[in-house]
Design goal:
By secondary structure, the protein is of the alpha+beta class. The chain has 2 helices and 4 strands, in the order ββααββ. About 25% of the residues lie in helices and about 40% in strands. The protein has a 4-stranded mixed sheet with strand order 1-2-3-4, with helices on one face.
Length: about 70
């Protein structure tokens, strides 16, 4: 997601589904690792975005866990 009108921020989301509630934390870590490994933020950086927020979200049923990293 890109927000030029909102201070030039870009957002990267990666979603994972956990098989147990205990797996949610590991799935968030896995999602952040995937964002890094596949360099999802590279397109935004090449377009000049300086403030990139990377979110990993894991779900188990109706529960969710979110982790975030920022590239600045």
């Amino acid at each position: 997601m890109k927000y030029r009108s909102f201070k030039g921020k870009a957002l990267v989301f990666e979603l994972k589904v956990a098989k147990t509630p205990q797996e949610m934390d590991a799935k968030c870590d896995e999602a952040l690792a995937q964002i890094e490994e596949k360099k999802y933020e590279a397109e935004f950086e090449s377009e000049g975005y300086k403030n990139i927020l990377k979110y990993s979200i894991s779900f188990y049923g109706k529960d969710c866990m979110v982790k975030m990293e920022a590239v600045q």
